[in-house]
Structure formats: C-alpha cells, structure tokens
Amino acid sequence: MSTLDTEDRIINASILLFAQKGYPAVTTKEIAKKAGVSEMTIFRHFESKYNLFERAFDKFAFSPKFKSLFESLEWNLETDLNKICSSFQDVLYRNQQIILMHLKNEELHPHFETMLSEFPNEFKKLLIRYFEEMWSRGAITENPETLAVNFLATNFGLFFTSLVMNELTFETDIQTCITNYVKIFTKGIACYNNSKIAE
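Request: output the structure for the sequence above.
Response:
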C-alpha cells in the first residue's frame, strides 16, 4: 500500500469521526481503528491529532471553480441562476462532511474559520458582480447586493434542509426544488419587458 493511500485512508476516517463526534471527542486510537492502521502510523504520517485535523480540513475544503462558471454564463436570468444554484448545491453536497465537522467543532482554529468563510464570501462577490451586470443590461431593477445575499441565504437553507432531514420534507428531489425556486426568484426580480429574460 502506498503512502498516499495510507494517508488518504487516515484522513477519510478522521473526517468521518470528526463530523460524527466533534474534534475533542475523537481519539487517534479510534481513527486508527477506523482507518485500519496502527496508532503509530497516524503519528508517523501526521505527528499529532491537530495536524491530522488540519490536513483533513485542507483536503475537503471548498475548491469550486466558480470564476470559470461565471465566465460561461449566457446572460439569461433564469438559465444562469439555475446553473449557478445547481453548481452551488453540488459543491455543498460534495463537502457535506467538512460542514458537519465544522458544526461539531464550535471553537475552530482561526485558520479554519477563515477558510470556511472564504467560499461564501467569494461566491457572494461573484453573485453581486453578476447581478450588477444584469442590472446594467436592464434585466433587473433590484439592488444587486440584496439579491446576492438573499440568493445565497436561500441556497444554504435548501442545503441544510436536505442535510438535516436527509430528504426534503415535501418529498421533492433537489433539482426540482432548484428549478422551482429559481423560477419564483426570477419572476420576482425580472424586468419583463427585457428580451433576455426567459418566458
């Protein structure tokens, strides 16, 4: 077994346990058992539980390429927001373990808090720029920053509903929910006399 495989197994095991129990409650002995390695192997690769926590966080931290996504939009409000919303939900879903880990660890190192805040902050900036451009094109009349904050908050709410309940309480799949939400959101902010807005 390669060093990389061993480290990946340890990291994957640790993040599952951290998400379930929180950082303070998890021991290196538990992680070793979960990963199928000796406790000494953990210390040989990571030196300490804290270093392992840091590596696990770095591996699963958000790294979506949203800049390229926003560069490929069609400037059709409903089409673009569907694409943005779907991509955002996908990123949250792929990183749900790190989110659970964060929720289980109320006092994280400032480094981790900064990393966790970078993604929504960057996403908000990209959304504001998008809505500003749509405003300049005459597609919307609402304040771009207000729209970005509301769109971001609703997306987090949708994700956490799915995460906490395991399935949406009204038994609707996530993509249908995204489509319906975007349609309602678009109708609420669109200038209907603009040809770029989807019918």
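The radius of gyration is 20 Å.
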